[in-house]
Amino acid sequence: MIEGLAGWDQIPELNELHSRMRNWYRYLRLIDPHCIDLKRFALVVVHEANSVSMRRIFKLQRANSQCADDEAYTDDFLDHFLDGFLLSRIGSNMLLDQYFARAPKEAGGLARKTGIISPRCDAVALCKQAADYASRICQMHTGQLPVVLYDNYEAGKGACQADSPCYFSYIPGYLRYIMVELLKNSFKATLMGATAAEIAERPIHILICRDECHVAIRVSDRAGGIPSHVGERIWSYLYGAAARGSDDCSATPLSGYGVGCLTANK
Ligand SMILES: Nc1ncnc2c1ncn2[C@@H]1O[C@H](COP(=O)(O)OP(=O)(O)OP(=O)(O)O)[C@@H](O)[C@H]1O
Ligand SMILES: [Mg+2]
């Protein structure tokens, strides 16, 4: 895909990503399919999953911003490129993670029967973990914390105890990633320019509802929302903190990467 971007070899970030991925695919091809050493294969798999870190994806996003200055690339083209690239990365990472989680322990894997899918993923516990994680990042980077409130409902029973679990079959790592990113956005927007008294009056609500077939999670805040004139641009990689020209140094785990940032997502 990178080679599909004219002039990719003139952009250092794209060059670096291209050479890493080419090396990894070459490494993978060298494995003899007739005599797979599972332990070695697991090592290659883990190395690959870790090698395209968020920092590297961020560099790709930065390179994209450089391309955006070039009239040859429209915003639509660059969004389309990044969508395709990230979709393919997420797809491969999911397969690699699944391989590693299913592989026997003697082959260096985790020997989990259902791999990365948890048949008892607890949406309530997961939301709380995500909020704790986002709170720690927020405290570290702003020195402040918003109030988080939980509502927990079950169809036919009404309100549940706040801690009552909500089990469903899902890949917890992906849901955690989404929740942390949504909460970081809410935390950041809620705290921006607010006094301690205002922060106390603007709790962030996490609502978890379930019936027999569905689980729905809603995050709502009182930070003022996103202006309607922003419209569909909210979905663009070229909108947001990263696109506003933050560089590698000013991006923090709270915001600025443009594609989220979470390392411990398993
Ligand atoms: N809950 C919210 N309330 C108000 N504005 C929001 C909220 N969530 C997002 N936004 C606005 O949308 C912009 C884009 O958010 P998004 O998370 O997509 O990008 P980002 O925060 O720059 O990405 P990243 O977190 O990876 O840096 C934010 O910079 C902010 O202006
Ligand atoms: Mg964000």
Automatic annotation (TrEMBL):
<dbReference type="InterPro" id="IPR036784">
    <property type="entry name" value="AK/P_DHK_N_sf"/>
</dbReference>
<dbReference type="GO" id="GO:0016301">
    <property type="term" value="F:kinase activity"/>
</dbReference>
<dbReference type="InterPro" id="IPR039028">
    <property type="entry name" value="BCKD/PDK"/>
</dbReference>
<protein>
    <recommendedName>
        <fullName>Protein-serine/threonine kinase</fullName>
        <ecNumber>2.7.11.-</ecNumber>
    </recommendedName>
</protein>
<comment type="similarity">
    <text>Belongs to the PDK/BCKDK protein kinase family.</text>
</comment>
<keyword id="KW-0067">ATP-binding</keyword>
<keyword id="KW-0496">Mitochondrion</keyword>
<dbReference type="InterPro" id="IPR036890">
    <property type="entry name" value="HATPase_C_sf"/>
</dbReference>
<keyword id="KW-0547">Nucleotide-binding</keyword>
<keyword id="KW-0418">Kinase</keyword>
<keyword id="KW-0808">Transferase</keyword>
